[in-house]
Design brief:
Oligomer: single chain
Structural class: alpha/beta
Radius of gyration: 22 Å
Shape: globular
Largest sheet: 9 strands, mixed
Helix content: 40-55%
Order of helices and strands: EHEEHHEEHEEHHEEEEHHHEEEEHHHHH
């Protein structure tokens, strides 16, 4: 069945969906509409893991090879707390510049016959004539906002402040650094995304943010202060901001976004327009590309769009549950950092790696560490831990929902 598709938003999700649909049927008429000029993108590097790369190689080997070749890798994590340093081996991670990723996907889409229209803004008041309109226009989606009541959009703002920066320091591992100040703790995570650049995400609690003056500092002064605080990992390299034109640094509070339903007639949500997960689990790009895979599969499997969109929504909502839970507990771990920061370094780093656990917030940290160590050796204890964590999480989640009513 030949389908006319309008993808609104030229991010990874919309571009990859257009590639998959064209590969399924070259007769599909597909246009990607992006409001910004080509090559102008926000963000520094994105992370992903081998599991995603394997899926990309199955779906479109050509773009997968280009993405892999343009990525840098690491297989260790490093945590610095005060003057103590701990390193641990881990799964292989990948980093790629967001700008480079979009270049690869845009070039591949064009080669398959997809039309890319930049500097072309679409709103809910001027939807293009198409069989399927895909809202892949990000967390502040204008298409979703125009029908917010229908989609049942809900956002929850995190407590901590964060800022997304770049640096010319190229890390050789996924690096965490925790610095104690007179106003509380501030920390960052850094990872490479090219042979010349790394991403650095800095986060702190509100009292630290205001106590250090980061709430009022201009971008240059704010970056200078952060460079001083994190001199131990930057080795003299600068931090690089993204000027807003107003002189202010772009500190944010993360917004977790969910929607009750993901489609309305022939309009469907994709990627950050449909859902967000806290940046500390590094899954945003992966989940967006997996959305594109699921939607393309659903369109191929069904002759009619209504059942295809229903299948896509049902499948992705189910698959996202684990990532959403991990992101929620990861954000809470950082919001409750004083609970863990004074542990011996090896224990603190181990619980940093366990921050996605639904059981960890309800067990004393040192006891959890001992249980986790023992669970690595006793199968029965591993099974108990796997059973008890979700049970506790469901109980807490049910109480939270009840308190909102």
């Amino acid at each position: 069945m030949r389908v006319k598709v309008a993808c609104v938003g030229g991010g990874p999700a919309g571009l990859y969906l257009s590639i998959l649909l064209k590969r399924q049927d070259p007769s599909h008429d597909i246009t990607v509409h992006e409001r910004d000029p080509e090559g102008s993108t926000y963000g520094w590097g994105v992370t992903y893991w081998r599991g995603l790369l394997d899926k990309l190689h199955v779906r479109d080997p050509e773009s997968a090879r280009a993405i892999e070749e343009a990525s840098v890798t690491w297989n260790q994590g490093e945590a610095r707390v005060r003057d103590l340093v701990t390193r641990r081996p881990g799964d292989q991670g990948f980093g790629i510049g967001r700008h480079r990723l979009l270049e690869i996907l845009a070039a591949r889409a064009r080669s398959l016959g997809v039309r890319l229209e930049y500097e072309h803004e679409i709103t809910h008041g001027n939807l293009p004539a198409a069989d399927l309109v895909v809202a892949g226009d990000g967390v502040r989606s204008t298409l979703r906002t125009g029908y917010a009541d229908h989609f049942g959009t809900r956002t929850e703002e995190g407590r901590n402040h964060y800022i997304w920066l770049g640096t010319s320091k190229v890390f050789d591992s996924f690096t965490f650094a925790f610095v104690e100040t007179d106003h509380g703790w501030i920390w960052c995570y850094g990872y490479p995304f090219s042979p010349e650049r790394s991403t650095v995400v800095v986060e702190c609690a509100p009292p630290t943010w205001t106590g250090l003056g980061l709430d009022t500092a201009g971008e240059a002064d704010g970056l200078a202060l952060l460079e001083k605080l994190f001199t131990g990992i930057l080795d003299g390299h600068p931090l690089i901001g993204r000027s807003t034109g107003s002189g202010g640094a772009q500190w944010l509070n993360f917004r977790t976004l969910t929607n009750r339903t993901w489609h309305r007639d022939n309009l469907v949500l994709l990627g950050d327009a449909a859902h967000t997960t806290h940046y500390s689990i590094g899954a945003g790009t992966t989940l967006a590309l997996e959305d594109a895979i699921a939607l393309a599969d659903a369109v191929r499997a069904h002759g009619d769009l209504p059942p295809a969109l229903a299948r896509y929504e049902r499948q992705r909502k189910s698959e996202l549950l684990a990532a959403q839970s991990a992101a929620r507990y990861s954000a809470q771990w950082y919001e409750n950092l004083p609970r863990y920061i004074d542990l011996p370094p090896e224990q603190m780093f181990a619980l940093l790696g366990q921050r996605h656990s639904p059981l960890l917030p309800y067990v004393p940290p040192q006891l959890y560490y001992r249980i986790d160590r023992a669970a690595g050796q006793l199968e029965a204890l591993r099974r108990l831990k796997r059973w008890l964590g979700p049970k506790v999480a469901r109980g807490v989640h049910a109480r939270e929902l009840a308190s909102r009513k």
